[in-house]
Amino acid sequence: MTTERPTLTLVIPAHNEAEGLGHLVDALDHTLRHVTDYELLVVDDGSTDNTAGVLRSLREAWPHLRYVILSRNFGHQAAVRAGLSRARGRAVIVMDADMQHPPSVLIEMISAWRSGADVVHAVRRYGATIPLFKRLTSGLYYRLLNLISDARLETGAADFYLLDERVVQDLNALTEQHLFLRGVIPSLGYRRRTVPFTAGDRSTGQSSYSLKKMLRLARDGVLSTSVKPLRIGVLLSSLVGGAAALYAAYALLVALRGEALPGWTSIILVVSVIGAMQLLTLGIIGEYLGRVLAEARGRPSFLIADDSLDADRHVAALSDEPSGREDGPFRVEDGS
């Protein structure tokens, strides 16, 4: 394989995508072969199907295909970071392996980069075919994220973007364990463009990105981009303090009138509300402390079990070594 740097690297995290990889490689090659020189870098995020085997087979037919196989399932964001750490292109596009990120959008993204943009973010447009619940929850999440964090994201911003090599270098220099890349990239301050896209249908199978994983990503999006949730405790204590002052004034007024103050129901209600607020605040603090502990441990965000580029270098090194048969000090002579 050539050691020259390609213009473009496509980083594609994959988890249990064995069935659709061949179709993906064909579609990307059909789109890009006459546009730019490129390489595909597929990151197998601990798949339990034959994704790794399919990648090795495809590589025999597609020399521009590279793969990185992680030692286990580290999660989508970690898989993307693993790909960014191994990308060689002057520009890098991150996209999913399930064909829901249409290859046709790549041409517009590359054009925007060549026009001077350092970051080109593809933004999903939700059509009528998308379930109403998904549209509502997605819009609500992005509004909430922009409100309580330092991220500024458009509704529908996905992990589908192009990054100039300078942006990739800056991201690779970050050592945080839990990075929400969609939120971190805008904070770097590079020239940014957006392009719209409509999500396609999955090429094969079902998504392995469960509701639990989506909720975890949503949580990481808030906690990794802002400390504002920690201030919720201050807000809640102010609200409770104000309510307590009003209740004290009410109790004093009732006492001055010589009336009996209502009994246990109101007291239990107040105690329950205060207790719930305390537990919420402690839970938020606990999430941040857990992240501090993870950072202090310094464990890697991902571990690479196999990298096709390393294998190529190993084979090349072996081919350059003398075999010992022609140049060695020993000869096999005819004993006749």
From TrEMBL:
Gene Ontology terms, MF aspect: glycosyltransferase activity
A GO cellular-component term linked to this record: plasma membrane
InterPro entries listed in its UniProt record: Glyco_trans_2-like, Glycosyltransferase_2, Nucleotide-diphossugar_trans
Residues in Glycosyltransferase 2-like domain copies: 10-138
Family annotation (CDD domains): DPM1_like_bac (cd04187)
Transmembrane portions of the chain: 232-255, 267-289
Biological processes annotated in GO: lipopolysaccharide biosynthetic process
Pfam family, one: Glycos_transf_2
Keywords from the UniProt entry: Cell membrane, Glycosyltransferase, Lipopolysaccharide biosynthesis, Membrane, Transferase, Transmembrane, Transmembrane helix
Record-given protein name: Putative glycosyl transferase
